[in-house]
Amino acid sequence: MKMGLCSFCLKSGILCQKCLAKLKSGEVSETDLRVARLLLSLEEKFPSLQNVYFHKTIEADRTLAIVVGPGDVPRLLGYGGKIVKTLSQETGKSIRILENGVDNRKFLEDLFAPLSIMTINTIWLPDGSTETRVILGKKRGAHSSLDVKALKEIASKVRNITLRVEFAD
Ligand SMILES: [Zn+2]
Questions:
Q1: What pLDDT, on the 0 to 100 scale, is given for residue 144?
Q2: Which of 22, 30, 150, 164 could staple 133 via S-S, CB 3.0–4.6 A?
Q3: What pLDDT, in 10s, does the model give residues 57-114?
Q4: How far is the CA of 166 from the centre of ligand 1 (A)?
Q5: In angstroms, rounded to a whole number, what is the distance separating the alpha carbons of residues 58 and 134?
Q6: CA–centroid distance, residue 19 to ligand 1 (Å)
């Protein structure tokens, strides 16, 4: 796993001045550090993690989104979901894996997985601002584990978009 901190610091847990400065400035958060070290400790068991670029984590309530490099989502979702399950157990949060630098559709697909996205469109409000309306297909049982309010907050923090979420009848 690669990230903005040196791998030596990440492995040892003792940060050099440069890495410490990133932590102090908020460029890297305590949660980022914790999750990055967790991912690193899982590399031996799940070798696909070696090629993952870790950007950052975004928290909203009990949901924790992990933002990784383009194409990295399958590397974290493989192994029958065991990596995500372990992350969820260790952090006590519901985990979402998102990719950096993708278009809105791909971002929303990852955000709401395993629900399918039926429609995405932009709604213009009278004040000139916009909302992104997402209509999700139903999948039995999948609903309950997704905290829509937290996911809307994550969308706002990661991409600066306001979501309006609806479910298909
Ligand atoms: Zn360092």
A1: 62
A2: 164
A3: 999 999 999 999 999 999 999 899 999 999 999 999 999 999 999 999 999 999 999 8
A4: 44
A5: 21
A6: 4
Nearest-angstrom CA–CA distance, 112 and 152: 10
Give Dmax (Cα) for the chain. Answer: 55
Residue 142 has pLDDT above 70, yes or no: no
* C-alpha of residue 20 to centroid of ligand 1, in Å: 7
CA of 8 to the centre of ligand 1 (A): 6
Distance (angstroms) between ligand 1 centre and the Cα of 21 equals: 9
Q: How far is CA 55 from CA 49, 67, 77, 120, 139, in A?
A: 13, 5, 17, 26, 30
Burial 122-146 (b: 16+ CB within 10 A, else e): eeeeeeeeeebebbbeeeeeeeeeb
